[in-house]
Amino acid sequence: MRRRDILTAAAAASTLAGCVPAAGRIVAPPPKRDHQPGVVTPPPGFATLVALDVTGSRPDRPLAALAARIEAATPATVTLGVGASLFDDRFPLSRVRPRALATMPAFPSDVLDPARCHGDLLLQVGAASAEEARVTADDLVRAADGGVRTRWRMDGYRTENTVTAAGLPTTRNLFGFREGAGNPDPRDGALMDRLVWADEGEPAWAAGGTYQVVRLIRFAVPLWNRDPVTRQEEMIGRHRADGAPLAGGPEDARFTYADDPDGRVTPLDAHIRRANPRTADSERHRILRRGYSYGAGSDQGLIFICFQRDIEAGFATVQRRLDGEALERYVLPFGGGYYFVPPSLDGLRSILTTSA
Ligand code: HEM
To answer: How confident is the model at residue 11 (pLDDT cuts 50, 70, 90)?
Structure first.
């Protein structure tokens, strides 16, 4: 069986199933920056993602109902994003489209199923149990009262949802490797301002939001498990048991590849080396990942989620570097999309009322 056959067989199986005084003057305080939860806040153990399309001619009605219900949806953490299609010619919203919001393209090794891609809206519902995430998601969709149609939906979970010694959220993915240590620290506000929150050139309502990329990636777990752990570690660039980099030191070690130009220690096509070559230039391309595993048995994998201030400089640059990596043979990206997460629901309400 070739890789595509294995993965397509799995797909077929799954369809069944304040004011500061300065120099004697009163100056305006810096604008208070809102951010939605679910981006830099620690990821709860479970998440349900629901992509929705607006069905009628008035997005303001279902969105107002949805926003009100989101605000009441404790203790779940709900993050609402908008897709490029919300700003197409169905509604008078094109003038307020986030600067760089585009439709996710297909990358070379993708086999995208249009029914599992894109959407006018994306709800990310995080919760402490799978049931709470699912029930909250159901409730939100119902609140939109027929004004939206579910386009695709995924339930995710984080196995071993803990933190690294330095306090970065980490989880173990279905290939058995720990994920999270390479993330920029979400507690570092200045770093998040540089890498995650979008500001320059955005319409006023969108400043302080972030761009979200979702990729639904099926894993060929049996194929992966046939390889010895040492081979798997070469493909990832970290040790399987504890996440320690092959480059040396503990999981949280700061390291570069400057003393390993030929890839003798960390192979040149290892996932983490391709994803982040750790040079001065690659710093600005870093992304904040928040992945969840999904499924079991013949259809399982990763709901890859990442946030960045600019998708081109972030995800798309990293994804192009990953093109042809050793890991590619074991995975199949089949869905997902690009979304913009506005800083607050009030911002979203403001553009809808103006355009209604
Ligand atoms: C295809 C399935 C994938 C698997 C199994 C996977 C697995 C991993 C693992 C185990 C790590 C090391 C732990 C860590 O640093 O968090 C890692 C790091 C990373 N991955 Fe992935 N990943 C996948 C997809 C992706 C995709 C699609 C992207 C972005 C296009 C990506 C970007 C990164 C980045 C930026 C790092 C951190 C590298 C560093 O700073 O050293 N990964 N991934």
So the answer is: very low
Asked whether residue 71 is domain-assigned, the answer is yes
In eight-state DSSP terms, residue 315 is I
Q: Are 211 and 311 in contact (CB under 8 A)?
A: yes
Q: CA 241, CA 201: separation in Å to the nearest integer?
A: 44
Burial 157-182 (b: 16+ CB within 10 A, else e): bbeebeebeeebbbbbbbbebbbbbb
The residue segments making up the domain with residue 114 are 42-355
Cis peptide preceding 75, ω within 30 of 0:
yes
Is 25 a domain residue?
no
Distance 311 CA to ligand 1 centre (A): 16
Residues with CB under 6 A from ligand 1: 173, 175, 177-182, 215, 217, 236, 238, 271-272, 275-276, 287, 302, 304, 315, 318-319, 322, 327, 331
Q: Which carries the bigger pLDDT value, residue 2 or residue 60?
A: 60
Assess if residue 99 is contained within a domain.
yes
* Angle in degrees, CA 34, 38, 39, rounded to 5: 70
Cα separations (Å) of 115 from 8, 51, 70, 108, 110? Answer: 15, 10, 25, 19, 14
Q: What is the pTM of this model?
A: 0.93
Task: Give ∠ CA 87-88-89 in degrees, rounded to 5.
Answer: 125
Instruction: Please report the atom of ligand 1 found closest to the CA of residue 302.
Output: 2
Among residues 63, 82, 154, 87, the alpha carbon closest in space to that of 115 is found at: 154
172: left (phi over 0), alpha (psi -120 to 50) or beta: beta
The residues with which 26 forms a beta bridge, in sequence order, are: 21
Cα 98 to Cα 351: distance, rounded to the nearest angstrom: 12
Span 267-295, mean pLDDT?
97
Q: Is residue 260 in some structural domain?
A: yes
Whole-Å CA distances, 236 to 53, 143, 197: 37, 43, 28
How does the average pLDDT of the chain come out, rounded? 92
Tally of domains in the chain: 1
